[in-house]
Amino acid sequence: MYLTPQRILLAGATGLTGEHLLDRLLNEPTVECVLAPSRRQLATHPRLENPIGPLQTLLPELSGDIDTAFCCLGSTLKEAGSQDAFRAIDHDLVIAFAKRAREMGARHLLVISSLGADPASSIFYCRVKGEMEQALRAQNWPQLTIVRPSQLLGPRMQVRPVERLTAPLSYLLPGKYRGISACTLARALWRLALEESEGTRVVESDELRRLGR
Fold first, then answer.
1. Which CDD domains match (predicted)?
2. pLDDT band at 156; cut points 50, 70, 90
3. Which of 25, 28, 50, 108 falls 20 to 30 Å from 120 in CA-CA distance?
């Protein structure tokens, strides 16, 4: 069975994957409206609502009925500046966004996590992602889709030197460890949004590549 989302809430629309996903959503005739709060203004579109400001501030002000929510928020320790700042974005803000989306009527949440996410991990990044997943499960979503991409590939506004060096090598890795383009991930997210099911589904990177072909 397939559920066609009509009104979409999108967080992270200015990010690498979020930009691709927003473009896809706005070109889908079945999408009535995309509500995409962001810090900087997005290109205008007749079916786009774009409140401007910090997401933490905008969340309580968002209104309207939502069918499906996409969370493409994500940072790095270097970008965030500290472990506390990273957790505030990749854990706290994601959880707050999900809570508000549910309050607005969303029944399906799709969220970008990470390869290796595990609340018991000794690696801080993977542990925070795992704790985020754990907290979302506790919200008891009718339908929760957690995607765990490997290294995301594609041009970014902010250059990440380490990713630039490792990107070519990531294409050589096997299975779920192989890099995935942000465009492919966006296509996979949309396809997953159309699937109607119950409970939580975790989708690893190799399956995401297949779905996003």
1. CC3_like_SDR_a
2. very low
3. 108
